[in-house]
Design a protein that fits this description.
- About 30% of the residues are buried.
- It contains 6 helices and 9 strands; from the N terminus they run H-H-E-E-H-H-E-H-E-E-E-E-H-E-E.
- Helix 2 crosses helix 4 and helix 4 packs across helix 5.
- The longest helix is centred in the first third of the chain and has 15 residues.
- The protein has about 180 residues and is α/β, with parallel strands linked by helices.
- Homodimer.
- Belongs to the purine/pyrimidine phosphoribosyltransferase family.
- Its main location: cytoplasm.
- Pathway: Purine metabolism; AMP biosynthesis via salvage pathway; AMP from adenine: step 1/1.
Length: about 180
């Protein structure tokens, strides 16, 4: 687990973050245990702890792109990008971006959707962090990686909620 491997086991910040996330049963559909981060955003200390942990993790890894998955990736991604000196790329729902876009469809736990990104937003060989809130089916992560041209980038996927800072790091290009 990310916390144990990175010296965060027992870190009181993780407890504060976990306590700040509200679980809403049966939302948006029966059987779903929705992890509501709006309560985390109301707690400025827990929100800052969340950003600080990611910044500490990635500040010295020459990350050039932080891609945030709509919508919750937009809440954390720009702050992380700004703090580590990277650009922020929004991965949006269909029809939300002006100009030329590329898109990728994916399956959700309770339906299907599509992500879009501006053409040319990422350059080959950039180092990318994908920020989203959790991994349910893996469809969103797969779509995000496809949009970003996963075979060309080093991708770090960070889940804000799942396992509280569980990070799945995927080295997708061995020639960086």
């Amino acid at each position: 687990m990310f916390a144990a491997e990175n010296g965060l086991k027992g870190d009181p910040r993780l407890e504060a973050i976990s306590a700040a996330i509200r679980v809403v049963p049966n939302f948006p559909k029966k059987g779903i245990m929705f992890q509501d981060i709006t309560t985390l955003l109301l707690d400025h200390k827990a929100f800052k702890h969340t950003i600080d942990i990611f910044v500490d993790r990635y500040k010295d890894m020459q990350i050039s792109v932080v891609a945030g998955v709509e919508a919750r990736g937009f809440l954390f991604g720009p702050s992380i990008a700004l703090a580590i000196g990277a650009k922020f790329i929004p991965l949006r729902k269909p029809g939300k971006l002006p100009g030329k876009v590329i898109s990728e469809s994916y399956e959700l736990e309770y339906g299907h959707d599509r992500l879009e990104m501006h053409v040319g937003a990422v350059e080959p060989r950039e180092r990318v962090i994908i920020i989203d809130d959790l991994v349910a089916t893996g469809g969103t992560l797969s779509a995000a990686m496809s949009l970003l041209g996963f075979f060309l980038f080093l991708v770090f996927f960070c889940s804000i909620i799942e396992e509280i800072f569980f990070c799945l790091e995927l080295l997708l290009c061995d020639t960086l």
